[in-house]
Amino acid sequence: MEQHQDCGLLMKQINDELRKNANNALRPQALTIVQLDTLLELERAPEGQRSLKELEQLLHVAQSTAAGIVARLEQKGLAEGFGDAEDRRVKLVRITPAGVACIQAAQHHRAEAEEKLLSGLTETERDIFYTLLKKVRDSL
To answer: What domains can you pick out in the chain, each with its CATH number?
Structure first.
């Protein structure tokens, strides 16, 4: 009988491999997975913008980390930061047209990675896998 491994370790190993592959695929665009995640959060937002505080919470990072991510995206012309007209203490971040184009290019790599991840599963197994992943996520 197969000995069960720690599921946390298996999830970490899968996550580490996915992140490594994603970062390798994004390297030609000079992007990291967290920068792409930031662009995706901006694209999903109303008017393509969020406050720095919102990004910090959505990305589960410290304020200084969120500020660094945004600064690098600004340097690459993929996002732009500006002050809120109503409250100058609030920094807003908006995705640029170049950022939107970058996301579109990255979607192809994401689809390939997902297909590779699920390639060993039948369609029924994929449905079960998604259901179980959502169930585990929702229990946390």
So the answer is: 7-108 (1.10.10.10)
